[in-house]
Design brief:
With about 220 residues, the chain is α/β, with parallel strands linked by helices. The protein has helices at about 25-40, 70-85, 110-120, 140-150, 170-180, 195-224; strands at about 5-10, 45, 95-100, 125-130. Strands 2-1-3-4 form a four-stranded parallel sheet, sandwiched between helices. It is globular, with a radius of gyration of 18 Å. The two termini are about 20 Å apart.
Length: about 220
C-alpha cells in the first residue's frame, strides 16, 4: 500500500426517494463514486459506507431512518480519528488522509462541522459533495438517471411521476421547518419521467471526474 494512500468513506442515507427509488439511493451513488475514484486513482481504499445519516426532513415518510446531525458529527469525527492516529501515537498509520464522499444533502452540515473539527486536530480530511449543473435535488431526473445506469433493476419505472419542481430557495425554509412532505406529498423534488440510463452514465462520469480532480489537488498539498 503506497505511503500516501487515502481512505474514501462513502456517506449515504436511509430515506424515502419517492415511490420509484430505493431507500439507499444516496448510499448507492456515494459508493459508486468512491469505487470509481479507487479505479481511477492509485492508492485509494474504499471503506464500508455510512448508510444512515441526517434525514430528519424525510421523517414523514415510511422507511426513513435518521441519526441526526449531532450524532453524525460524532460518528464521523471518531471514524476519521481511528483512521488517522495523531502524530507520535504508537499506532499503525496506513493512510495519509480521509476523503468523505457524501451522497446526501442532509449530511452537509454534519460533514462540514466534523471536517472543521478534524482539521483543527491536524488530521488530513477532504469533504466532497456531488454537484450537477441543472440537476434536480431529490428522486427526480438526476438521481433516477443515475440509478437507471447503476442498477436499473431497483427502479420502479411504472411508478415514475413528477414531484415539486419549485426552486429550493423558495421551499427550503418550509422543508426545514415542516419536512419534505409539506411541499411534495410523493416525496419527489423534480421530474423523473424523462430519466435515462444514458444520462445517468454521463452524470456519473462528470461526478467522478470532479471527485478525482478534487482528490488529486488535495493529495498534492499532502505530499507538499
Amino acid at each position: 500500500m503506497p505511503a500516501r494512500s487515502v481512505l474514501a468513506v462513502p456517506l449515504g442515507s436511509c430515506e424515502q426517494h419517492g415511490p420509484h427509488l430505493p431507500l439507499d439511493t444516496d448510499t448507492r451513488i456515494a459508493v459508486a463514486c468512491a469505487g470509481r475514484l479507487a479505479d481511477a486513482e492509485d492508492g485509494v481504499v474504499v471503506a464500508p459506507p455510512v448508510t444512515v445519516g441526517a434525514s430528519g426532513e424525510h421523517a414523514g415518510f415510511p422507511g426513513t431512518l435518521s441519526i441526526g446531525t449531532e450524532a453524525l458529527v460524532g460518528l464521523l469525527v471518531e471514524l476519521v480519528r481511528s483512521a488517522l492516529p495523531p502524530p507520535g501515537a504508537d499506532l499503525p498509520r496506513p493512510f495519509g488522509g480521509v476523503v468523505l464522499v457524501n451522497g446526501h444533502g442532509g449530511n452537509v452540515e454534519a460533514v462540514t462541522v466534523a471536517t472543521e473539527r478534524l482539521r483543527d486536530e491536524a488530521r488530513a480530511v477532504l469533504a466532497w459533495h456531488p454537484r450537477v449543473a441543472g440537476g434536480d435535488s431529490h428522486a427526480g431526473r438526476t438521481e433516477t438517471s443515475l440509478l437507471l445506469h447503476l442498477c436499473p433493476e431497483v427502479v420502479r419505472t411504472d411508478l415514475l411521476a413528477p414531484g415539486s419542481t419549485a426552486r429550493w430557495r423558495d421551499i427550503g425554509p418550509v422543508v426545514r421547518e415542516h419536512g419534505l412532505a409539506a411541499v411534495t406529498p410523493g416525496g419527489v423534488l423534480g421530474d423523473p419521467t424523462g430519466a435515462t440510463a444514458a444520462e445517468g452514465e454521463s452524470v456519473l462520469a462528470h461526478l467522478v471526474a470532479d471527485l478525482s480532480a478534487a482528490v488529486r489537488g488535495w493529495r498534492a498539498t499532502l505530499d507538499g
